[in-house]
Design goal:
By secondary structure, this protein is an alpha+beta fold. Helix content is 43%, strand content 11%. It is globular and about 50 Å long.
């Protein structure tokens, strides 16, 4: 289509007065429980399951930095496995033991 100019999406959306908010936060809730788990406790449980030593500085296999970010962006388990194959065992364990919730929160 000659002559059509594509504009950045945020400009088009602002003219329509629509605000699109993508998830940027997440929780993990152990299956069978009602309250979200502390992420450090999730990491501790994961370490116990995989036989990794405790570490109060680094996340096990950087799961929070990779899988946690994906969950915070609203990405599902299957897509995380597909795009981050190195996280498969972590994702499998998390999905088997936790439910996730992602939402948008302004600063």
């Amino acid at each position: 289509m000659v002559g059509l100019r594509k504009e950045p999406f945020h400009l088009v959306a602002s003219r329509r007065e629509e605000v699109i908010r993508m998830p940027n936060c997440f929780t993990l809730t152990r299956k069978g429980e009602n309250e979200p788990s502390e992420l450090a406790e999730v990491d501790n449980q994961m370490r116990l399951h995989f036989g990794a030593p405790p570490d109060d500085v680094h996340w096990f296999k950087s799961w929070y930095d990779i899988t946690g970010l994906a969950l915070a962006c609203g990405i599902g388990w299957d897509k995380i496995r597909e795009t981050c194959p190195g996280q498969k065992e972590v994702v499998d364990w998390l999905e088997a033991n936790y439910t996730t919730n992602a939402w948008y929160q302004s600063k």
